[in-house]
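Re: that backbone. Tokens:
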């Protein structure tokens, strides 16, 4: 798959530009079914370009997002220590990456995206904000290409974009340290806003797929109104 597709969810755009949920219209990205490639539920990919990173930063980093995304609470759950090594897969413009960096001043944050322009933007943002622990990484559809094992992998609003998820996360297991954790945040099937219903993946399916990939569910967190939040641990080899 060509790298013009960013793992950062287009559905996020729909939710962020909606200032009046009662009367909001669905953005063109979600009205046009042609924007989404066909395929089975386990191999579907979405082809969208996020080449204009500066423009998307105004959308994805809009402070209004904090009210429903609750980023600090999401990170509190992960119980990071100052030396933790974390991978933010589908980092986009760095909404979570920047927050993680402040919590791991002695560690590292690998900010992974498949869109080269997002990786460029992440590099520039880290430099501007003096976030020396942030290491942008060019990922691919098959692998996040992490340079070393990590303690925690965070995947927000991205799981439903990944194609062969069982193979992807089975490979990812080798990039998790012993007792390493994988946190998945994605849209509920019945959420009022998000990707088209046929692209949403229920949490039961996520648990099933990650079990097949070699993980066990260890935590569920219900505090997000539009998303589910599942934490997994890699099984012993």
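Recovered sequence:
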């Amino acid at each position: 798959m060509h790298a013009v597709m960013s793992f950062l969810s287009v559905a996020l755009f729909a939710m962020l530009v909606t200032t009046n949920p009662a009367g909001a219209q669905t953005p063109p990205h979600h009205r046009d079914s042609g924007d989404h490639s066909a395929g089975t539920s386990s191999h579907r990919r979405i082809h969208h370009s996020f080449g204009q990173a500066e423009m998307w930063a105004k959308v994805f980093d809009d402070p209004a997002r904090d009210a429903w995304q609750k980023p600090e609470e999401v990170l509190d759950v992960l119980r990071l220590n100052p030396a933790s090594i974390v991978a933010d897969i589908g980092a986009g413009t760095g909404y979570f990456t920047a927050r993680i960096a402040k919590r791991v001043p002695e560690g590292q944050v690998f900010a992974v995206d498949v869109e080269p322009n997002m990786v460029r933007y992440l590099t520039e943002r880290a430099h501007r904000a003096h976030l020396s622990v942030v290491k942008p990484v060019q990922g691919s559809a098959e692998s996040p290409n992490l340079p070393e094992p990590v303690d925690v992998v965070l995947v927000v609003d991205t799981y439903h974009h990944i194609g062969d998820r069982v193979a992807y996360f089975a490979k990812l297991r080798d990039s998790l340290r012993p007792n390493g954790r994988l946190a998945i945040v994605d849209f509920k099937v019945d959420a009022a806003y998000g990707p088209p219903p046929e692209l949403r993946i229920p949490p039961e399916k996520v648990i099933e797929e990650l079990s097949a990939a070699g993980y066990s569910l260890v935590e569920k967190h219900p505090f997000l109104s539009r998303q589910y939040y599942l934490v997994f641990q890699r099984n012993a080899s």
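Confidence is low (pLDDT under 50) at residues 1-51. The chain has nine helices and seven strands.
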